[in-house]
TrEMBL record:
Lineage: Bacteria, Pseudomonadati, Pseudomonadota, Candidatus Muproteobacteria
Keyword terms of this UniProt record: DNA-binding
Pfam families (alphabetical): MerR_1
Name used for this protein in its record: MerR family transcriptional regulator
Residue span, HTH merR-type domain: 18-88
Alphabetical list of PROSITE patterns matching this protein: HTH_MERR_2
A GO term for molecular function: DNA binding
Annotated SMART domains: HTH_MERR
SUPFAM superfamilies, per database record: Putative DNA-binding domain
PANTHER family: BLL5018 PROTEIN, REDOX-CYCLING DRUG-SENSING TRANSCRIPTIONAL ACTIVATOR SOXR
């Protein structure tokens, strides 16, 4: 998703397990208050919260934040447009279950439709 032409702007992601909000801010060239706002707007972005409500981001969170940054700042998406695009690519856990249930229902309805056509 990230354009290789822009990869030189952002530092490489170190091989750590957890990153603080300050580290993620530097890695993604986004201010901490923007990261906190994006947590509210993008359900896929859920950093681990520990003592004192401190956020700890994992590598997949950093990659997701870079994707969000790319969509908003480089590709010109609105927040809702980026949210919709990411929802298709990275469904939130509860949305993934719902999507599976819908797909199962669609298959069952197609089977019923096939049976009705055969009658």
């Amino acid at each position: 998703m990230l354009d290789p032409a822009y990869n030189h702007e952002l530092p490489t992601i170190p091989g750590k397990r957890y990153f603080t909000i300050g580290e993620v801010s530097e890695l993604c060239a986004v201010k901490p208050h923007v990261l906190r706002y994006w947590e509210q707007e993008f359900p896929q972005l859920k950093p681990v919260k520990r003592r004192g409500n401190r956020r700890y981001y994992q590598r997949h969170d950093v990659v997701l934040i870079r994707q969000i940054r790319s969509l908003l700042y480089l590709e010109g998406f609105t927040i809702s447009g980026a949210r919709n695009k990411l929802a298709l690519e990275h469904p939130a856990p509860e949305n993934a279950e719902r999507a599976q249930a819908i797909q199962s229902l669609i298959r069952e309805l197609e089977d019923v439709l096939t049976l009705l056509k055969d009658c």
